[in-house]
């Protein structure tokens, strides 16, 4: 008989007591977040609430002043971004960071290389194992372009894709690292209504594929319809956490977004 699964086996990322100060500004103050496997977990809050700081701490761009992290049941210290990718967290940025002169396919292949074994030696001498691995990377990259819906643009350079398709490509490249957690920083920013709808469908599909997603987004309406759970930050402090319906009706949240007098 197997071990009984406890509730804690379910937690993919546990973040406890994270604080971060920049000079006189307390950007994050004792933030606790527990993300379960297979969830879409949302982080919302007014401008300057600390959402991006939180993301940057989790993904190794900033070192927190305090706090502990457990990823997949193991202690995790987000040091440098490439270490974070190896540990299993892939992120996208508010401002799209693609290789503009490379094709869509090449962009995804670059992401895939984080997970590959043939070193520089193999790449230089192109021996059989390296060639086979390259073919496998290419195939996986094509599958991911297919998955996000832009396989027909595989040979197009990234900068010649529409804005919405660049976002899809960025998500495909993040997925290419086979992450435990996909961390998306405002993926709907700058999208029109049609693109947002398509993005929502894609994120649901990624979740159905068994991935866990952490999402920062300004579009609160999109978040309420998409997330399993949401944490609301205000001035770096968590003011609410729960399912969207609870969060939406929380007086502190309404106050933070609308200010007093509403």
TrEMBL record:
Alphabetical keyword list: ATP-binding, Cell membrane, Membrane, Nucleotide-binding, Transport
Pfam entry (one): ABC_tran
Annotated GO biological process: D-alanine transmembrane transport; L-alanine transport; L-isoleucine import across plasma membrane; L-valine import across plasma membrane
Highest taxon, organism lineage: Bacteria
Gene Ontology MF term list: ATP binding; ATP hydrolysis activity; L-isoleucine transmembrane transporter activity; L-phenylalanine transmembrane transporter activity; L-valine transmembrane transporter activity
Keyword set includes Membrane: yes
Cellular component GO terms held in the UniProt record: plasma membrane
The name this protein goes by in its record: ABC transporter ATP-binding protein
Species for this entry: Oxalicibacterium flavum
